[in-house]
Amino acid sequence: MSSNHVPAGETPAHPDYNLVIAKAWASRSFKKRLLRDPRAAITGLGLRPPAGVTIKVVADSAGTCCLVLPPPPPPGGSMAEQLNKVPGGVPRAAILLSGFDRIMTAAWSDPAFKARLLAAPEAALRALEIEPPPGIVFTIVEDSAETSTLVLPPPPPKEIEFEEEAGFAANHAMRWLAMLAGPFAS
C-alpha cells in the first residue's frame, strides 16, 4: 500500500483502526512499532491518521482494560456519535461493563464524578452501582480534540489466522471484541 492510500469508505480523519488492531495481533514487530510510534506505524499501513491529533496506543491484557473517555457530544449530538469517534470502534470496556452509557453520561455531566473516575475507576464505577468484573484492573484515559487513544484488546485465540484485507480484519476484530465479554461475565 502507498502512504496515500485511503481504503474505500474511509476518510482521512477516520482510518480503519480495526485493520491496525488486527495487524498488531498478527505481528509482534508491528505491535512494538505501534506502541513506540503510533502515527508512523499507522501511516506505514497506508492509512492516514487525523492531522494535528496526537495518537496514543494502550495495550489491554486479559487482566487490564482501558476505558477511553471521549469528549462529550456537542449540543444535540448523541453518545453513539461520540463513541464512533473512538479509534477502533466499540470499546472493550463497553462490552465488559454493564451500564457503560451511565458511565459516559455521568463523566460528561458531573466534573466531580469524572475526576473520581480518572483517579479511582473501580470506586467510581461502584458509586454508579456498576460492579467491575473480578480480576480486571481498569484505567481511564481522557481524549480531547488534540489527542486520540487507540486501545489494543488482547489478541484472539491462536487458531484464528489473519489476512491484511481490511474487511477480514474488521470482521474478526469486531467478532473478537464481542467474544471478550464471555470470560469476564460475573
Largest sheet properties = 2 strands, parallel
For the terminal residues, how far apart are their CA atoms?
43 Å
Percentage of residues in helical conformation: 40-55%
Count up the helices: 10
| Strand order in space, largest sheet | 1-4
- Which of globular, elongated, flat, extended, rod-shaped describes the shape? globular
Give the total of beta strands. Answer: 4
Estimate the strand proportion: 5-15%
Structure in a nutshell:
By secondary structure, the protein is an alpha/beta fold. It has helices at residues 17-26, 28-36, 38-44, 79-83, 92-96, 100-109, 111-119, 121-127, 166-179, 181-184; strands spanning 54-59, 64-69, 137-142, 147-152. It is globular.
Description:
Residues 1-14, 163-169 and 171-186 have low confidence and may be disordered. The N and C termini lie far apart (43 Å). This protein has ten helices and four strands. It has 186 residues and is of the alpha/beta class. The chain has one domain (53-184). The chain has helices at residues 17-26, 28-36, 38-44, 79-83, 92-96, 100-109, 111-119, 121-127, 166-179, 181-184, and strands spanning 54-59, 64-69, 137-142, 147-152.
